[in-house]
Every structure is written in structure tokens, then in C-alpha cells.
Design a protein that fits this description.
With 384 residues, the chain is mainly α. Helix content is 66%, strand content 0%. The protein has helices spanning 3-14, 33-44, 53-56, 59-68, 77-86, 95-107, 127-146, 162-189, 193-216, 219-223, 229-254, 259-287, 301-310, 312-321, 331-339, 343-362, 369-380. Helix 7 (127-146) packs antiparallel against helix 11 (229-254).
Length: 384
């Protein structure tokens, strides 16, 4: 998929009000998540926190960054995205590349990889697998940047100067397209048709998943019909899991592992992604204190479970009960309503299920330090 096509689709699928809080960087993860990631980075040979740095520090992107600086002082979401690249205290930004590297090291070379012996492996990982990990992060970063595109049709005078948002949108499209173009160039240089097909299909999945996600996030849909749990899981995989799952499979293909090994790698990536998203969605419901301001999406997993459990009629009644005099939702009261039923516990159970399925997939690989790190990651996403 060409960068220009990607940006147009994302613009349609990801338009949002500038004042809405964007979940670009997950705030999920247990207190020991940072240690789990830090220990894993040592195993693959270098910190992955700046895996995209080579691209971000290029002359071409520096020119883009100079223009992005003009947004300082505005309320355009692209600024928050840029800050997240520099400082992501939860160590979630480069998680996908790290997992690809850990799986590559865990699986090691295959018996059919005799023609790859000439490649210089670093910490048990082929250069092509490291390149794939970087490509995965570049695509994910492009996805984050394009999510900052603001729907100007919904912009009001109180939200800030319109010209700032117009300029910010141009920068979001330009910088996102630049990252995606670099990823596509790197993908072609891998010289592996199957991996190109896998990652290309993952980009298509991303666009489709984001489109559904934003369709469900419209006020009309969120407050009435919404989606059921099965649909939520399918759509969440497209927007949050397909890239990692297919990158994990691609890493096995680059080392010429068999179909069963590729299937297990895909399975691990799929379940880790879904478990991580569930953990993120659950944070406001398991961490918030009484009287503390809360914010969460009406398409978050606990809300979807709750809506399905209580039924449409009761859900609509609860929404009316928590509305303020200005006809806005009181999220503190809504959170209490969701926690009063089994929506939260059901989401926790599903998160644990995906964590266990990821553990099950990784058990088939030989025991090693890298496999232990992947097991720790799977265990960490089930802790709150």
C-alpha cells in the first residue's frame, strides 16, 4: 500500500476532535513492566527504545521536525505524539520490535538456513530479523503519527486557531508518510516475497481496524448499539495485533523456520497484543480512586462486556442516569456503574486467557534466556 493511499485512508478513519484525549501511548502495565522490558533489551543486545532513531535523525526528517516545532503552543495532537517518541515512561513504544527480536533469538537458526550462515548474527539474531523489527516499529510509528490528524469539520473557535490545526494536519500526513515510505523501502530490501506480503497485509489490517474503531467511537454508536465482545476482539486484533503477529511470523520466515514454528510465533504475537490492549483498557477501572478524575473510551473492553451483560435497555437507562445538566456524561459515575457488574472481571478473565495462550505458544520453543523474557512479558500483561 502506497504512503499517500495510507494517509488518505487514515485521514478518513482517524479524524477526531483535537480536545479529545488520544490513547497514542498506552499507560498500561504493572509496576515491574519497566524492569521486564529493560531485562529483555539486554538479551537482544541493545536497547530498542530508539529503534527508529536512524530514520528519525535523517536529514529529510530533520527538515520535517523543524516545521513541526512551529506547532509548539498549539493544541494539535501531533505534539503529544512527538513528546511520546522522546519520553515514553511506560516503555511501550518500542515493544513490538523488542518482541520480534526476542522471538528471533528464541527460535535461533533453522536446519534449512544453511545459505544464511554467511550473515553475521549479533546476539543470535540475523541482520534481516533486526531490520524487520525496525520496519515494524516504523510502521507502528507512522500509524501513531497519522492518528493525530484532526477532523477540521468538528473544530470550533473555542478549540483554538483553525490555521494551527490545518498546518498540524499537513505535518502529520507528511511525517507519517515519510516514516511509512522508509518502512516500505526497508521491506523491499529484505528480498523476501512472503514477508513483504505479510507486512503489506498487516498495513491493510491496520487501516481496516482503525476505520472500525473510529466508527464505533462516534457518540451515536458508543451510546447506543456499539459492538459485542466477539466483534471487539476481531476489530482490536486488526488495529492493535495484526502488525505484531505477522511480524513475528515474518521473523521466523526470514530464518527459514517451518510453518509450525511460524504459526506459533504468530499465535504468540496475536495473544500478547490482545492481552496488552485489554490491560490498557482495564487501567482506569482497576487503578482509579474515589473522587479521582477518570477518562476512558466507551469502546473499552470493560464497557463492551458491561453493555453486553446488562443489555441494551439497561445500558441506555444507565447512560441517562449519569448525564450531567449539560447533557454530558459523568465518567466517574459511569465507571462506578460499569464496576458494579461483571464487565471488569470478565475483561480481566479475557486478559488472563490471552496471557496464558501466549505462554502456551512460547513453551514450544527451546528453553533459553530469551524465551524466559517472552514468558515474563506474557505474565506481566496479566498483572494490574
Amino acid at each position: 500500500m502506497l504512503p499517500a493511499t495510507w494517509s488518505r485512508l487514515c485521514h478518513r478513519a482517524l479524524s477526531c476532535r483535537g480536545q479529545r484525549t488520544l490513547s497514542l501511548f498506552s499507560s498500561s502495565g504493572p509496576s515491574d513492566w519497566t524492569k521486564v522490558v529493560s531485562d529483555a533489551e539486554k538479551i537482544v543486545g541493545y536497547p530498542t527504545s530508539f529503534m527508529s532513531l536512524r530514520c528519525l535523525l535523517s536529514d529529510e526528517f530533520s527538515n520535517v521536525a523543524m516545521h513541526v516545532r512551529k506547532l509548539v503552543g498549539t493544541r494539535h495532537p501531533l505534539l503529544n505524539t512527538a513528546r511520546g517518541f522522546v519520553y515514553d515512561s511506560k516503555n511501550n513504544l518500542q515493544m513490538r520490535g523488542l518482541i520480534v527480536l526476542l522471538l528471533s533469538k528464541t527460535a535461533g537458526p533453522s536446519h534449512a538456513a544453511s545459505d544464511l550462515l554467511g550473515q553475521d548474527m549479533v546476539s543470535g539474531i540475523y541482520p534481516s530479523q533486526r531490520n524487520l523489527a525496525e520496519i515494524t516499529e516504523l510502521i507502528h510509528t507512522a500509524f501513531l503519527v497519522h492518528r493525530g490528524i484532526v477532523n477540521l469539520n468538528e473544530w470550533t473557535v473555542s478549540d483554538g486557531p483553525l490555521k494551527d490545526m490545518q498546518f498540524g494536519n499537513k505535518m502529520a500526513v507528511l511525517s507519517g508518510d515519510f516514516l511509512l515510505a522508509n518502512a516500505c523501502t526497508g521491506l523491499a530490501q529484505l528480498d523476501n516475497t512472503k514477508v513483504v506480503e505479510l507486512i503489506s497485509s498487516a498495513i491493510g489490517d491496520l487501516v481496516e481496524g482503525i476505520y472500525h474503531e473510529n466508527s464505533n467511537n462516534t457518540e451515536e454508536n458508543s451510546l447506543t448499539d456499539g459492538v459485542n465482545v466477539a466483534t471487539w476482539e476481531d476489530q482490536t486484533f486488526l488495529s492493535h495485533g495484526a502488525l505484531l503477529a505477522k511480524s513475528c511470523q515474518g521473523a521466523m520466515e526470514l530464518a527459514k523456520h517451518d510453518k509450525e514454528c511460524q504459526r506459533l510465533a504468530y499465535k504468540y504475537g496475536r495473544h500478547i497484543s490482545l492481552g496488552h490492549k485489554l490491560n490498557s483498557d482495564l487501567q482506569p477501572f482497576v487503578k482509579s480512586s474515589i473522587g479521582e478524575p477518570v477518562s476512558f473510551s466507551l469502546s473499552a473492553a470493560p464497557v463492551v462486556f458491561h453493555r453486553q451483560i446488562v443489555g441494551r435497555e439497561r445500558w441506555n437507562q444507565q447512560l441517562q442516569e449519569v448525564k450531567t445538566q449539560r447533557n454530558q456524561l459523568d465518567y466517574s459515575k459511569l465507571l462506578a456503574a460499569v464496576k458494579s457488574e461483571k464487565g471488569v472481571s470478565s475483561a480481566v478473565d479475557l486478559c488472563c486467557y490471552h496471557g496464558n495462550k501466549a505462554l502456551e505458544a512460547i513453551q514450544a520453543f527451546p528453553s533459553s534466556e530469551a524465551r524466559s523474557a517472552l514468558e515474563n512479558i506474557a505474565s506481566a500483561i496479566t498483572k494490574f
